[in-house]
Amino acid sequence: MLYTSTRGISGLVPSAAAIKKGLAADGGLYVPINLPRFSLSDLEKMCSFSYLHLASEILGLFLTDFSHRELEDALEAAYTKEKFGDEPVPIHMINNKLAIMELWHGPTCAFKDIALQLLPHLLTLSAKKTGENSEIVILVATSGDTGKAALEGFKNVPGTRIVVFYPNDGVSDVQKRQMITTDGDNVKVIAVDGNFDDCQRGVKEIFNDEQFAKDLRDKGFVLSSANSINWGRLVPQIVYYFKAYSYLVETQNIEFGEKVNFVVPTGNFGDILAGFYAKCMGLPVNKLICASNSNNVLTDFIQKGIYDRKRNFYKTISPSMDILVSSNLERLLYYLTKSDPDKVAEYMDELNDSGKYTVNNVEARKLKEHFYASWADENKTKEQIQLMYMVNNYIVDPHTAVALSVLNNYQRDNPKDNFVNVVLSTASVFKFSGAAFGALENDATIADSVEIMNKLSEKIKVKVPKRLSGVTEKPILHSDVVKYEDMRSAVKGFLGV
Ligand SMILES: *Cc1c(COP(=O)(O)O)cnc(C)c1O
């Protein structure tokens, strides 16, 4: 399988090169040139596969320059019992029409673990296959969750180093603790005197600094990113859509061949795009339901065909969805335009120049054929946390609550729809204890802290996962604080160049 850039200028490359590069040289994202499709009989067989078995089948179709042995080894190293428990992605049935797919049983209790535990293995294999001898240095700017998930994924992976920058006053107490207590001899966590934008700008400048890249290369290092635009982060996410479907068949909640809806709390459009790939590969999906918070740029796009990022930015209680430019949407545009890279490039230029673009009628219709979109404000989100707890004795985090609230809108707009709905649950509630506790107590949102995690735990009588409760006992291993101007020298200092 070969990969092309969504903007069409960079040439075709095998998957290892696409994963190693992350972003194509023309600024586009790598997409497979054609989509594999399962026959119904293949799909039916797959319904009895374990998670790892399913993953190796699906990854094998996309990463054809990797051997089966390589993929299986990578999968086994990523999804161990110690990291994920017996079942990497358990499904909780609320009733026979509503399933919650819990994507947060990994090391940092958030769904990004699923991709970020596997990516380091795919990346080191890709480096080897492309003849790269340098050590890979991952740079991450984080507003919280991604940083820790990347640290856990890359720590102690031979041939890699990771440097994470976070805003000194921009992450919660628990998030900070999680990061600065990370062990592993290839990791570095650094606070930046400034906000998240400063961190991100600093990291981007380092990536664009050719002299810096050359200095590093001379010393045997090459920079790379664990960003969600990397194909190696997207492809592992396709697997769990198939897993959910198999589960529903196995447990006889649906008959094989019956369609289901997936409801996805969306930010950068990676998670839901993986669902779109699953649908294109033949998984019986009715609608992909795109759920946004008050930053509802995607709702407008899917409803009207107009992407307009010129709008207020809201800081919400579902912060991982506080995004106005969803980078993975570019991949969807590629398919909407029937693989027309010139058109994609045009839309992206418009977005860059004027902050806005409008797809044509055919594309807008296609968008609505596959997707439904709606959004939930802060009150609706809190209401949903309360409601799920009171009615079903099941507690969800604010991101999952946004999805549940949007599912209500979907059902209101489509009263005859009788498909089973699978809601993707993206974080353990204990990662967002302040918002959840505030919602349950009908109180304002409280800052996340270990104390509030414990209070929430007492209230709902669910134990705090050890990985989160243990952060206060672990020693602090990273205490550097740097100014924005000094981020480069901090990286060099860590690498000893
Ligand atoms: C990253 C994230 C999302 C959004 O996923 P995208 O792939 O960016 O759309 C939703 N919820 C949580 C908890 C996340 O960390």
Q: How would you explain this protein's 3D organization?
A:
- The chain is α/β, with parallel strands linked by helices.
- It has helices at 15-21, 40-46, 51-62, 68-78, 81-84, 112-116, 119-129, 145-154, 173-180, 196-208, 210-218, 231-250, 270-280, 297-304, 329-336, 341-354, 361-370, 378-392, 398-413, 433-440, 450-460, 466-469, 487-495, and strands spanning 2-5, 13-14, 30-32, 91-95, 98-102, 135-141, 160-167, 187-193, 221-224, 260-265, 285-292, 306-308, 356-358, 371-375, 420-425, 481-483.
- The strands form 4 sheets. A 6-stranded mixed sheet has the order 4-5-15-10-11-14, sandwiched between helices. A 5-stranded parallel sheet has the order 9-6-7-8-16, with helices on both faces.
- β4 (91-95) and β5 form a beta hairpin.
- α12 packs across α13 (270-280) and α20 crosses α21 (450-460).
- The chain is globular, with a radius of gyration of 22 Å.
- The site of pyridoxal-5'-phosphate has 17 residues, from α13.
- Residues 110-112, 145, 228, 265-271, 320-321, 399, 426-427 line the site of pyridoxal-5'-phosphate.
Q: Name the overall outline.
A: globular
Task: Tell me which ligands are bound.
Answer: pyridoxal-5'-phosphate
Mean pLDDT: 95
Distance between the termini: 38 Å
The multimeric state of the shown protein is single chain
Determine the number of helices (DSSP H or I, runs of at least 4 residues).
Answer: 23
What portion of residues is helical?
A: 40-55%
